[in-house]
């Protein structure tokens, strides 16, 4: 059986900001995604300065945006605003998950800084409580959204000035529809507070993942009790601290397997696992391969070979 494991991962910095940059002259990207292409079969936690509007084409996706989580089926669309931490995973039982996303910088939407569009329709949305907005093609008001996004999907290969002008018009039209039906209905909330608090916790884990983890030390650093530290992290990230830390350590191990010749025991120690056996067990649980087998796969891939399991 040919194992078609891919190696995609959203590159992020220490604060989980995506380091992917869009073309400054036309800051728009249409991303056609299959979750099976990503390391571990899911899109890693990240946030970015861009707006994301996605449509599910096949399968079922579990989307988590800070404390909000939602299951998205075929025909569902969703909007994620800038600076919202989020991750996407296949829903339980979904073998194939495909979707496409408009990713664009706000400048494409608002035009020049200080424009009427920016003040009337964009900046107010950023101050709202909502972190995630869902819509469905069965709702009458969404029909123009799906029709216009499908036009871009079908004509992407053109990528000429006329296409780019149409894309900007469509992005603005879609936004106005979402504003009138979803965004303007949300109440103001405490998004900045929650972002800052959870990012402080994540920053602590990212700075200390190579050491033996102490919940007491983390709670003290974040000025909360041990219990509140656990509860809040689970509420916002939908994963407990130990599981998140294990996932992050495995992701760092993937980088070392790909970019270095370190022994498996050295990698285990350098990413914070207490023993080589625990590292191998955790890695295999997440990646479905042992670290050694995964390294062989990566090297075979670089040589143009398939990995046979």
How would you describe the oligomerization state of the chains in this entry?
A: single chain
Secondary-structure element sequence?
Answer: EEEEEEEEEHHEHHHHHHHHHE
Strand segment tally: 11
Intertermini distance = 6 Å
- Report the portion of residues in β strands: 15-25%
Radius of gyration: 21 Å
Supply the number of helical segments: 11
Poorly predicted tracts of residues: 1-5, 305-309
Shape: globular
- Characterize the main sheet: 5 strands, antiparallel
Estimate percent helicity. Answer: 40-55%
Q: Overall pLDDT, averaged? A: 86
Q: Order the strands across the largest sheet as they lie in space.
A: 2-9-4-7-10
Helices and strands in order:
Elements: E1 2-3, E2 28-34, E3 43-46, E4 51-58, E5 61-65, E6 68-72, E7 76-80, E8 86-90, E9 98-104, H1 106-110, H2 116-126, E10 132-136, H3 143-155, H4 161-181, H5 191-208, H6 215-221, H7 226-237, H8 241-259, H9 264-270, H10 276-287, H11 291-302, E11 307-308
Antiparallel strand pairs: 1-11, 2-9, 3-8, 4-7, 4-9, 5-6, 5-8, 7-10
């Amino acid at each position: 059986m040919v194992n078609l494991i891919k190696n995609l991962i959203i590159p992020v910095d220490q604060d989980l900001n995506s380091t992917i940059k869009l073309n400054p002259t036309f800051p728009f990207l249409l991303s056609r995604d299959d979750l099976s292409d990503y390391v571990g079969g899911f899109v890693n936690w990240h946030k970015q300065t861009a707006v994301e509007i996605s449509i599910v084409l096949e399968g079922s996706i579990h989307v988590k945006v800070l404390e909000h989580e939602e299951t998205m089926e075929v025909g569902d669309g969703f909007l994620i605003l800038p600076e919202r931490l989020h991750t996407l995973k296949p829903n339980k039982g979904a073998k194939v998950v495909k979707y496409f996303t408009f990713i664009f910088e706000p400048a494409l939407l608002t035009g020049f800084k200080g424009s009427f569009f920016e003040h009337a329709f964009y900046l107010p949305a950023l101050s709202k409580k909502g972190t995630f907005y869902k819509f469905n093609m069965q709702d009458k008001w969404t029909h123009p959204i799906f029709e216009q996004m499908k036009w871009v999907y079908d004509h992407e290969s053109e990528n000429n000035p006329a296409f780019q002008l149409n894309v900007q018009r469509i992005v603005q039209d879609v936004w106005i529809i979402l504003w009138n039906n979803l965004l303007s209905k949300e109440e103001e909330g405490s998004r900045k507070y929650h972002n800052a608090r959870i990012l402080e916790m994540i920053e602590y884990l990212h700075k200390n993942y190579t050491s033996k983890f102490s919940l007491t030390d983390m709670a003290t650093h974040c000025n909360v009790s041990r219990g509140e530290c656990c509860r809040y992290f689970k509420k916002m990230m939908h994963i407990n601290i130990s599981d998140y830390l294990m996932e992050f350590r495995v992701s760092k191990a993937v980088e070392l397997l790909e970019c270095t010749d370190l022994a498996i025991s050295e990698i285990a120690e350098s990413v914070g696992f207490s023993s080589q056996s625990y590292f191998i067990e955790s890695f295999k649980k997440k990646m479905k391969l042992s670290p050694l087998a995964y390294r062989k796969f990566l090297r075979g891939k670089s040589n143009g070979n398939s990995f046979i399991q």
